[in-house]
Design brief:
- Helices cover 48% and strands 16% of the residues.
- The chain is an alpha/beta fold.
- The chain folds into two domains: 16-208, 2-enoyl-CoA Hydratase, Chain A, domain 1; 212-258.
- The strands form two sheets. A six-stranded mixed beta sheet has the order 1-2-3-5-7-10, with helices on both faces. The protein has a four-stranded mixed beta sheet with strand order 4-6-8-9.
- A hairpin with a 2-residue loop joins strand 1 and strand 2.
- The two termini are 21 Å apart.
Length: 271
């Protein structure tokens, strides 16, 4: 099932595909060539897709993937310009896209079907967690071409892996396998490539079956705490606990537990 998304003329409308493999789950596929390259217009198209899905109340989880051999290899080096205006624009669109994903009301899961390199790896970091094919590879090779992992890469990677591991990957530019990525905590699951999408969909369906207000509060509290600190995170957590604790989904969860039946969440306006 496809979801219509009106994209502007300065966006690569054919670079992404949005489908709905489940009533509450959307799948965004990066189709830009070569290898899921993230030109400015592709980044804008991805931002518009996330925004359109946020306006669709029935969508409660999103999968982001590539096709063929790559999830995404990031920006196209052939497009690079030393012009400060171009460099600032590139960083703006990359950082804005990654922040858009982090701030989305629903969980966004990176389904890394192949190579996730450079800005493509940073894009995966911006997602709430990562699932990888057993043949996927990851790396931040910017240092090899006289650049570095901007667009929030230098901030996201150490928060996920710790300072030392992040420094090692960013300063050597080495590529790692899915198995090493799992071992160091860069990804949460790996599956055979032929099973990847079905396994990712199972996880997304599980998340989408829960209360949208609860998953949103969880995501907001974690992200705010990581950005603003422990006390700020606890303050938001407390505020959201009050706001969600008396809503329809909280009452339904309690009643379903007591009545020993599956809960029916997201039936009211909070979804």
């Amino acid at each position: 099932m496809s979801i219509e998304s009106p994209l502007k003329s300065d966006e690569e409308t054919q670079a992404i595909e949005i489908t709905s493999p489940d009533e509450a789950v959307a799948l965004i596929t990066i189709k830009s060539e070569p290898l899921g390259v993230l030109r400015h217009a592709v980044k804008r198209a991805l931002m518009r897709a996330i925004t359109e899905l946020e306006n669709n109340p029935r969508i409660r989880c999103v999968l982001l993937t590539g096709r063929g051999k790559a999830f995404s290899v990031g920006s196209d080096i052939r497009d690079f310009s030393p012009d400060p205006g171009w460099l600032l624009e590139n960083d703006y669109w990359e950082s804005s896209l990654n922040q858009c994903i982090e701030d989305a009301r629903f969980p966004v899961i990176a389904v890394c079907n192949g190579a996730a390199l450079g800005g493509g790896a940073v894009l995966a970091l911006a997602c709430d967690f990562r699932i990888a094919a057993d043949c996927a590879i990851f790396g931040f090779p910017e240092v090899k071409v006289g650049a570095f992992a901007s667009g929030s890469g230098t901030q996201r990677l150490p928060r996920l892996l710790g300072r030392g591991r992040a420094m090692e990957l960013l300063l050597t530019g080495r590529t790692i396998t899915a198995q090493e990525a799992l071992a160091i905590g860069l990804v949460e699951y790996i599956f055979p490539k032929e099973d990847l999408q079905n396994e990712a969909l199972k996880i997304a369906r599980t998340i989408a079956s829960y209360s949208a207000s609860s998953t949103r509060a969880t995501k907001q509290s974690i992200n705010h705490g990581l950005r603003a600190g422990w006390q700020a995170g606890l303050a938001l957590e407390s505020d959201l606990r009050v706001k969600t604790g008396g809503n329809a989904d909280a009452l339904e969860g309690r009643n379903a537990f007591l009545e020993k039946r599956p809960p029916k969440f997201n039936q009211g306006d909070e979804a």
